[in-house]
Amino acid sequence: MEEEKPLTAVHVKLLAFDLLSLTRTPPTFSRSGLSISRAETLGTVTSLDHKPGCFLKFTVDDGTGCVPCILWLNLLTAPQLASRRAANPDGVMMAAEAAASQAALVRIGAVARVWGRITSYRGTVQITVARLAIERDPNAEILHWLDCLRLARSVYDRRSDSHRR
Amino acid sequence: MDTAAAELLTVSDLVRLSRPLCGTTFLASSTSSRPSAQSEPQGVSPFGNPSTTTNILIPMERPVFLVGIVSLPVFDVDEHPSTPHKCPSSNSSCLRFSDGTSTVCCDVLNFGVRMLLEKVLVLAFNFTPFKQGGGFLEIVKWSFRVFLSGQLHPCSTTVPFPLRLHNVSAYEDSGAKARYNIIGAIESVGPVFTAPCSMKNESNRKNLRGFLVEFIICNCQLCKSKIPVDKLVKTADSHSYSKSVFVYFCGSCSPWHPAITKLIGSSVVLSGLKKKLMFIGRGESQLIFVITEVSLLHVLRMPWKQSVHAKTRIRGRGECGHYNGVVRAVYLQGTVVELDKEVWLLLTDQQSVLPHSIRVGAIIAVKNAHFVRANFSGNQVLIVGCCFRSSILVESFSPLETGCHIVSQMPSLLRNLIAPLAFSARLWMLLAFSSFCRKFDGILQEEEILGSKKTEGLLQMYATSCLPSWAFRSRHGVFSEMCKHASASCGYSSEPHDVELKLMVPLSIFMLYCENMLSRAVFRQGKTYPESCIHHGGNCSQTVRRIIPSQEIGINLSGTLKISPASGRLQFFDATGSVDVLIPDLPSTWKPNSIYEVSEYNLIIEGIPQKAQAHSKEHIDESFSCKMIFDWSSLRREINVGIVIYFHFRNATCRELSFNSSDVPKEDHEDLNGEFLMLQVLHKFPVSQKFPGDLAISERSSAIVEAIVLPWGLFLARNDSGQHFSEVVGNLSDNCSQISIKRQKTDRSSQSPGSLDDLNSMASDRSNISISTRDNINSDLIDMNSHKIPCLACARNSNKMVLVGSGILYSIKRTVKTDISCKPSILKTFMEFKSFDLFQYQGLQIGGFYIVKHERNGSSCTFPDSDSANGLKILITSKTKLWRLYMFPRETLFYNGVTCNAAFSNLLFCTYEVFVGEVIRNLVKAPASYSLVTTDIYLQVCRDLWGPLELDLKKIRCHFTNVASTIEEDNLFCNETGVSLSSSFNECGFSSPFPVGNLTCIRREIIGVHNLKSLGSLDDDKWPRNCNGDVTSVSIYIVMGHHTVEVFGSLRKYAWPIGFGEGVYATFYRILKHSMQNRFMLTPISFIEIDSVRMVNDASLSLHANVCSASDIFVASDATSLVLISQLVLSSCSSFIHLRCRVVDVCMLILERSDTSKPILKSMGPPQFDIPIAAFVLEDGSSSCVCWTNGDLASTLLRLSDEFPSTAVGSTCESSGCYYLDRILRRHDRITMKNYGSLSDSCEDSFSVSSGNILSNSDENLLKSIIFNACFGLEWAIVGTVMDLDAVRELQGHYLQADMELDSFQHLWARELHEQHTERWCQQSGGDRDGRLGRGRIDGDALGMEDVLGVG
């Protein structure tokens, strides 16, 4: 049987309770032994902490828990990105503009879909946002649940089991 | 054969019985045995036409036979007064059967010439009575009486028959010098026609009747020599028949027409002929043979000579040939016969006569007809067109009880219209005639449709405007077309094939067609919707809405525009039905009840598929056909979908019929002279429906419009009073300049021009300004102390600007009791429109400015101009004209017809909405641009004097913001901040049950509409319908900011806007914002206006993908299995798989310039470039894969049709990605883009973009932006096939000349693409019953998900 591709490059769809219970296994995270590093979540924005030019922290509540998310807005100023800015100024500029425009969309009460890397801050799992979109479809949330359940059942659980074996 | 047991029946017996029947001598003792053809069960039509009778002919119970003589027809009854019978058909050449008791028309199978001379026994026959008396005898089987008695050998074919039956007239040829004989096969027989004839030295002219017969003879020396007939007959078999000659049967030989026609294809010898040189046209002559007094006919017992056309393959390009078929229906007095399936026999020539025996069910042979394939509105038909050489023979009589067609004269005007047309145009014309007759039955007289000798009818006007030039051709006479047929004198051979002509159909057929279109589309996609989602009489989330452009429908529409007295809606109307219309640029001066034609429109069709399917299953395959138009009565059924026609008034052609209107139509702007009041519409109250039977209210319906009378008047002086226009402009400009100097001085001292604060200073400034008007008479009407602004008025006339004249805007001083000192004097008024004048109401737009004539000396409509008139209700009748006004300030007033029209055209071009596949953008609410398109009067105002008026308008707006329950003007175009509420609604202290809140106005997109219950559907006893009408309780879901907000309440059926539903952008006026909840409530005064309409639940997001999926390969996504990307490894390469995923990256993209000649479209038109290959990384949470595709699918996945954010490209206005790529590709033939990294790690420099030329940074950034936009966007449903690595490497090698590291991915070739809809996925999830829910904290019971997921 062909070996299955690792899930580290894929944005896994996990419900908040599942996401928040991931175990940190640097450089990735582990869900019942299955390595993952990117995730997608969807829910209502319930808190906002905006430091213009620095970051936007917000939490996404999907009904099973609240996922902390951080969107960095300091791509043009952060010292650790200096080399990248020098190498690809246009690319960094575009990313910074995209981050700023996405940050403007986030409001408390909005239903947001977030893609990003799974990171941890002070021991808590969070998502470092790569992209986000505001959902207008009233069915989006419940369909996200269904997706999460379906994937958990037919992919993640199965692969965790096989990994354990 | 024994006729002893049979009873002799007389013709008079048959006539007396006067019922359709059949009789035979061979009837078995049991009367139950019937011919097999008659065993068809009664009531089931073998022809698929319910209107066609399927009763078989009733057989006579006893064996019968007839004895009589078959004789040739008598054309001129006046010359033969003894003739006892005349065929009721005009111009008919029927055979006759007579037995001494009576004579009837007859037709014979297995005709023999000898039967014309002897008595025959008719052994089997059909008889059909005529309504006018008499009847028609179809002789199925016959025999000679003497043969039956064994005395004579049956019909010896070599016996010659004299062709002259009567005395020869002086105009005909005598037998002298009649020494020519011909042997050959009869190829074609022309129609009977009359030719003027005169003798030498005689002034009297006589019409000589006759017909031409084309023979194919042998051209050998023997035939050319004058050998005796008997020798010629003996050598008949040895000849080669190839030369065409014509024989003219004229005078007393003309009755031979039916007999000779029946001999088409037979070999005959004609002897005793004369040769004559016949001149046909200028300088052209033809040598023909003429029958003489001594001419004889010999019918040879030779094998049938095969016609040159017998084996013609039907290609439908005008070629000539024979066609055999079954008659399915006969329409339009026998001018159109439907044969088989969609084969139409045309008999429109005056000389062409439909034989009586062509009844429904008969098998006929059409000889020497032309075959033309035509396409009418997407429906392919084969036309069998008859020219002068064509003949129709019956191969088998119909066993059905279908009546004979008595061809009376077709209306000569129609015949004249049709005569010069090509065949496809003739059928088109007949279809149009049939449609018009049905559409305007009771509306127009036949004369108005067909026209008269002096005036053009509607049909002719329409045909002239629609038919291309090739459709009209010159006709020649019978001689010319017969004799020069081979040299294309006939003209039919040159008819273009496969041409498409748009039809005009009755609205009832159009609506059926639309319903079928929707059902077919739903079936094709394999969609089914649960019955539970069908709500009574309204929309639900499962409603399918389609927007189809007229180009795809191929049908023109025609009808009257009128306001439905029942619903108050604007409708397109004809005698067969009516359909709602949306006309964004409807002028307020449109003419109700005029006939309009529209060829460019968009159809908005909306319905619940299940409901549509249920009614359409039997009709689902019933595509549009010509039969529907000719025989539409069988198609009457209920329409179950909502249909709206959306078109621009400028695209409609108004037909002015001058038959019954003695008055010359007056230009709309002719009345624009004198004093006018200016109004602004504040609100339109919904049409109040009143019901017959309600004694308290006598009127049927009426509507109220709330408006304010502005404190400004307009005086217009027409420009036709003799003064040169430049003089007027000069005066006005001079005044402008003088005034502007004064204003400049004043402005220096004022704070900020245009601000509200300087109103007082402006008011004081008014007294300083004086303008001399050229019309001193009217100066006393205007308060000279008031402010005056010179202006120029132009009126819209079609799509041109026409100068009306110069004018003056002047302020009207009123003393209105008000607590605001500087408030302009404003009168609020209510305009009432009765049911007959609702057309004016329809044309009004909320927020629009209007002018209305102000008659001081009493008039039918007087507007309040006194202080006490505030709040008056004024009845607006059809006599009161309201012109929509658009004012724009200019530095200098000028009018130059050409410049203005050009500017106007540009304006229209810029502001017209763009139909982009799924969205119709209606400019009804787009500010400025809309006003220009729909305005009647354009007022150029001197900019330097514009300030006071502008300030007044601002003041008014400000004032009404502070008035309770009045909308705020700015709210009309609500921005992202959401609802902007007016000041406090008079909270009257009622705690409950009355809702409390503010009236407001919102403009948002509707994402869902649910009819909770239709109150009108309740029993009348339980619900006071008379008071409320069909009231429906609705929940409308709109998006506001990031929230879904509900607009709820009761909506009367007639307040439901046309085309309202999911996907619509609408403005809700005066809805109540619930103070307690985040909800809005519809009130009885709420008014909803549609702003734009979007396609809902369509297979794909963009037009391009739609076209693609509907083209070569269509894979119903529902028919394929939905899999996860992680399961792709298990899928085979051959089967289709269905993924639900998102684009997360673009690995590779090649763009190629395709056509630079076309202009770059800012709108979302088809791209002018090609995408030969593109590779996308897809993800669905389980894994990722690479999806390869090209062309439109790639374009759709890149979301190139999306409006691209202007900030991304540094542009000032938004345009589609297509537009920007088009622009880049003007400079680069081909661009290859490879991505070696991942967009998820956003700022990595992973792109490599290459082109023949150097790409600028901005272009490269734009490409990156487009790719960025494509990622993490919409969720797609992709149907495709798995690719193996070899195929991938081949693709890479072909396009990239280098491998990218893509081996670790699964690869897919996309075949079909849909935007993923959540409801649909819900259903798919519901169908996935093979597993359990999985572990999770979500309680399935609590969420009701068990039902969805099927968890046990």
UniProtKB/TrEMBL annotation, chain A:
Its main location: nucleus. It is found in: Chromosome, Telomere; Nucleus. Pfam families: tRNA_anti-codon (PF01336). Residues 43-132 form the OB domain. One of its GO terms (molecular function) is DNA binding. InterPro entries: NA-bd_OB-fold, NA-bd_OB_tRNA, RFA2-like. One of its GO terms (cellular component) is chromosome, telomeric region. Keywords: Chromosome, DNA-binding, Nucleus, Telomere. This is CST complex subunit STN1. It comes from Trapa incisa. The lineage of its organism: Eukaryota, Viridiplantae, Streptophyta, Embryophyta, Tracheophyta.
Automatic annotation (TrEMBL), chain B:
Keywords: Chromosome, DNA-binding, Nucleus, Telomere. GO terms for molecular function: single-stranded DNA binding; telomeric DNA binding. GO terms for biological process: positive regulation of DNA replication; telomere maintenance via telomere lengthening. GO terms for cellular component: CST complex. Residues 29-39 have a biased composition (Low complexity). It holds the Pfam family CTC1_2. Residues 28-50, 742-762 are annotated as: Disordered. It is found in: Chromosome, Telomere; Nucleus. The keyword Nucleus applies. PANTHER family: CST COMPLEX SUBUNIT CTC1. Belongs to the CTC1 family. This is CST complex subunit CTC1. It comes from Trapa incisa.
